[in-house]
Amino acid sequence: MFFITCRPRSGSTWLRTMFDAHPSIVIPPECQFIINLKKKYLGLDLWTAKTVSSFIADLKKQGLIESWKIDWSKLRDTLLSNVYRVDYALACKLVYLYSFSCFEKGNPLAIGDKNPGYSFYSKELQEIFPEAKFIYLCRDYRENHISIVRAGFEMSIIAATCRKWVGYYELMKNGCENGNLIVCRYENLALSPENELKKLLGFIGVPYSPTMLDYADYAEDVKREYFTNSYAWKLHKNILLPPISNKPMEWGAHLTREEIAIADYVVGKTGEELGYKKVYGRPNVRVRAAAIFGVGLAKANFFARIFLDALPSDARSFVDFRLRLYIEKLMRVFDLRR
Fold first, then answer.
1. What class is the 2-28+101-155+164-246 domain?
2. How far is Cα 228 from Cα 16, in angstroms, rounded to an integer?
3. pTM of the predicted structure, to 2 decimals
């Protein structure tokens, strides 16, 4: 197992598409069912036919699981025929293996999962899959802010988006054991995709395949099967285009000097650790004061995870997907009226 985590709008859907084009890698679209159902099914001493039926029923309720196009009959039959040796890790892996892919597949060597939300749960995922590897994809924090706001994911408070940018990475770095985390910069991936993909594949122990860069040949299939609504297509349509390595950064033209100064201040040494050069050094009092509200908002968002994780599986699935979408819509409305 390997997991691709990141801040949203960092290029992870594009990276997942390239991995999906590998004939020996299974990596369906995004769905957080592993963590959502962990509390209910991890640690069960014995699975029965009733457990299998309950597991599949719970899976079908998960947000975005419909895009996996799972062969439910084969999944059910395989679980039932192995019911005495099934545990949660094996059941989860079978869900991946019976998902649909637009790309031609041979024998799988690795199972992958692309999910920005799993940045919070590296320890839990290692509890389930001790052999798991993690790829953290990062993008320039200023460009990431512009893309997140443009997509309507969050309010345009740069201190908040940048504090989350730091928090996601810190959670991954602190949660992973030595040797099971690799960082990939989006800018390097766009500049030299083949070299970066070879590094990532070497890390997870799978040989490189040139088909990974032929993903655009399946553009119509990918669009038809994975992007079933106009909003999803609007967000991700550029993943089927060749990368533009010399595309100029937008943040210099779109952000004010104060916003850039706030962003540089909030990311601090983490930005430099990940290879991003700051414009401004020591912040003045005005910049520090302007950042307080946004940083507090981001910390409150992280703190809310404690309450989310305390919920039963069914309630957690609803809150983490459906309710979160409603809250995001309200936040965008509030942001537009400010």
1. alpha beta
2. 17
3. 0.90
